[in-house]
Amino acid sequence: MKSQPAFFLSLLVLALVSGSCSRNSQKQNATLPALDTATFHRLVDGKEIKLYTLKNSKGTEVWLTNYGARILSVITPDSAGNRADITLGYHTFDEYLNDNMYLGCIVGRYANRIAKGKFALDGVTYNLYLNNGPNTLHGGLKGFDKHVWDSRQNGDTVFFSYLSKDGEEGYPGNLTVNVFYTLTDDNRLVLDMQAETDKKTIINLTNHAYFNLNGEGTGDILGHDLTLVADAITPVDSTLIPTGELMPVDNTPFDFRKPQTIGARINESHQQLLYGKGYDHNWVLSKAPGSFGLAARLHSPVTGRILEIWTTQPGIQFYSGNFMDGTAKGKSGGIYAFRNGLALEPHHFPDSPNQKNFPSVVLNPGEKFHETIEYVFSAGK
Questions:
Q1: Is residue 369 helix, strand or coil?
Q2: Which of its termini does the chain have fewer beta carbons within 10 Å around, N or C?
Q3: What is the topology classification, in CATH, of domain 37-379?
Q4: What pTM value is reported for the model?
Q5: 145 with 106: CB under 8 angstroms?
């Protein structure tokens, strides 16, 4: 039999080891995502709010809701196999009702800005709600992000559908929108967007997810490396409306054709950076119009996570979180402060209805709007 000191020492070591294993196990098995799912069980505008989950064998998990056809969470492993949620969002549903950052949603009927809330089709001028200074942003007062979509899940695909009625937010035509999210086993989240109208109208759709590849709630994104496959941007005026020109990125802080650290040049005194309080601009993608190609590559040197974005769309808006003011509380409990996330939004150019030289955003009866965005997740060094 062991002596009493040796016996009690053995018990103490065993307790410490067991406690450490227990804590590590709890940490590794922490519930992701940090959503209070009970708060989503409700009706909005007489429609049931629904939650959907997509998972694959690579450890990637995507949570979606039919409120705004919205991405709530994207959980991916880093280079060491540790999983984290890399999209910004809220803990409860009520916070989404008051969201003014468009976290994870489909924005429309027209994503981005329309100057002075006006555009004309066949000589008829349409007036929109001004919700961004003198301009209209992301569809107006109650855009697609604030509606409950019809939805269903079929295996690895979640389908969302919404009828935007003629005159909604000032836009003409009954527009039927169908959106498909598919998570593949090779770590691609495919977003397929389709629409048809019964009257000539305009349309510009994208997803407005905010990413932080270190994990949401971990701080700013200034240390991320970004590549944008674009030779020019559409420069803007002081209200962030394009001037109609194309500005080559050569010898400017907007040249991301090779990987650049986001924070390296963001505070330079370039007039375009001053207008946007950082990056909040549309890059003109170099690929052929209508073709499917690489638009952006984002990399975190801290976690090794990589996000590639491929698309059929002609442009991509890079927004570096310049208007995040610390008033929003993130899903894991921390405050989302200045530049704690970034958005990469493949889309048609801002204010295209008023810019004759930009790719057309007009949709006619009998035509089909069809654009694709793919988010490809991986991890390296």
A1: strand
A2: N
A3: Beta-galactosidase; Chain A, domain 5 (2.70.98)
A4: 0.91
A5: yes
- Asked whether the beta carbons of 33 and 73 are under 8 A apart, the reply is yes
Q: Half-sphere exposure of 265 toward its Cβ, with a 13 Å CA cutoff?
A: 16
pLDDT at position 4: 42
Q: Is the C-alpha dihedral spanning 350, 355, 361, 362 positive or negative?
A: positive
For residues 276 and 236, the answer to whether their CB atoms sit within 8 Å is yes
Please give the helix or strand (H or E) that residue 94 lies within, else none: helix 93-97
SS3 category, 9 = helix
Evaluate if residue 203 carries a pLDDT over 50. Answer: yes
Q: Which of 310, 214, 216, 328 is nearest to 262 (CA)?
A: 214
φ and ψ of 108, to 5 deg: 180, 175
Residues annotated as part of the active site = 208, 345
Domain ranges of the chain: 1-30, 37-379
pLDDT score for 14: 36
Query: Cβ distance 113 to 243 under 8 Å?
Result: no
Hey, what's the torsion of the CAs at 356, 361, 364, 368, to 10 degrees? 150
Phi, psi values for residue 295, rounded to 5°: -110, -40
